[in-house]
EF-hand domain-containing protein 1 (Octodon degus), 638 residues
Amino acid sequence: MSNRVHGLPFLPGTSFSDSTKTAFHRSQTLGYRNGYAVARRPTVGIGGDRLQVTPLSQAQLEELASKAPFLTYGPPKQAPPAEFIPAYVAFDKKVLKFDAYFQEDIPTSTEEHYRIRQVNIYYYLEDDSMSVIEPIVENSGIPQGKLIKRHCLPKNDVGDHYHWKDLNRGVDITIYGKTFRIVDCDQFTQAFLESQGIELNPPEKMALDPYTELRKQPLRKYVTPSDFDQLKRFLTFDKQVLRFYAIWDDTDSMFGECQNYVIHYYLMDDTVEIREVHERNDGRDPFPLLMNRQRIPKVLVENAKNFPQCVLEISDQEVLEWYTAKDFIVGKPLTILGRTFFIYDCDQFTRQFYKEKFGIPDLPRIDVSKPEPPPVKQELPPYNGYGLVEDSAQNCFALIPKPPKKDIKMLLSDNEVLRYLATLESPIPEDKDRRFIFSYFLATDMISIFEPPVRNSGIIGGKYLGRSRVAKPLSPVDSPVYYGPGDFFIGAVIEVFGHRFVIIDADEYVLKYMESHADQYSPEALASVQSHIRKGGAVAPDLGNKQAKEDPGVQELEALIHTMQKRLTGHPCQDKIREAFQVYDKEASGYVDRETFFKICDSLNVPVDDSVVKELIRLCCPEEDKIDYHNFVRAFSA
């Protein structure tokens, strides 16, 4: 029927449908690819009929190329804006999967030094979060599963997070201190990254865990033990033990020492035992056994280096050769468990056994005693300049320094002080009239310097130098030479810490001491003091200069002292008053406070209520709270 209708004109009212046609469906123009809606052009018409395509001629194609478009029905309408689709909707359930691994160090295992752990890294496109999952491996003994829960992983310290643009095959990423190596990804991840213009690196092979591969190897084959008669050997060599005396010299290492040991070799089962030799008060813990009784391997097989010796016992399969009795020879070193023992002697039974078994004659006894090293001479470090040399040296003798031992002359020369008057060598004119009192303490060989205050001089007097030992100039720092009594005489120059002083006067007690100890002084020094004392006598700290003679106050003081000397002649305290004041004047400054002054006078029955004595006390008081007892004591001397 279709052939007859095919030639009829298609006029209104004469058209009719093909009764033979049964399919009227239309072709799909939309499709989905990797989860995305993609438009496609249909290749067939309604009902599956092939579309009639009339190709355009070359002239029509050129006309269309050169023809300018124009509007036929007015201005075009603007297309409606595309509907906004949020990321959590567009990328819902869209996950990128990467295969990776990381290396974990195993410092506590003897079987494996590191471990390879395979993981899967998931990247969720809807919120840019990531998670790391480790597949569960059977009988691994490691807690596996979710290593890092799903969240945005930090990329650096600035605050950036990992993005899918940072992920690729053959790259390393660091997550919370662990470095993961990405080796491959699934098909969806590859298609997505390529659609976004990312060029993927070629895939890599997944690293294998060496211990897991080792477990896949076939089990070892065990060898049937030999038919050696252990019972016969036990009955023959029971209670027969070879005894060797050895030393372990570890003096080459830090805090090492030479220790003595006794090595027992049991013939019944070829086991060895090492015992420590303890002496009384040796300072070591009473732990007798260095090594328990056991067989000692001499040569191990090559693949037995990683054998867990601390857990399992070594068998014949791991050892090529064991230590036997022929390896223990007197005079030869022997290495057992990393320690080298030197065997120097054995007992009589051992000597007889070696003679009968191995044909070795009497084993010698080797002398291993070492001579005591010479005592090390203790050398002191160089002097640092702080304090006295003797005090600083005590820090090198003991952990808690003790004061140096005092000389016995402290008991013989206690409270004996030699006093001298000195001037200062200085180019400054103001220093020419300054006077200083040197006090030399015979008990400690120390020197103190006191400058008597002078009114209207512009110089504050008082203590110039406390008690200290003064070294001579150009003396060595480590062993300094200090000033002694023989260095003080009239005209001597004393240099104290860069200042030069000239001795111009001395006390009467100095002359008595020099005459009684003439062997300590040169004849010139003794003669200089004798001639000076005989000519002018001992003077006060500020007497003998021109200013003192012209001062009316000094003249009045001298008159009072002369009057008191006539009145107090033969007073009972005449011989004790000077020593009494020196006991309280520790610094030998020549001054005591008022309270101490009157306390001493009261103990010696000095008539302080006398008007002349009161006037003398007033003149001897240059300061309100201190009294110059030197001039006061002069009133009691003949």
Q: What stands out?
A: Residues 552-567 form the longest helix (16 residues). Confidence is low (pLDDT under 50) at residues 537-552. Residues 409-536 form a domain with the PH-domain like fold (CATH 2.30.29.170). The chain has four domains: 87-215, 230-357, 409-536, 551-634.
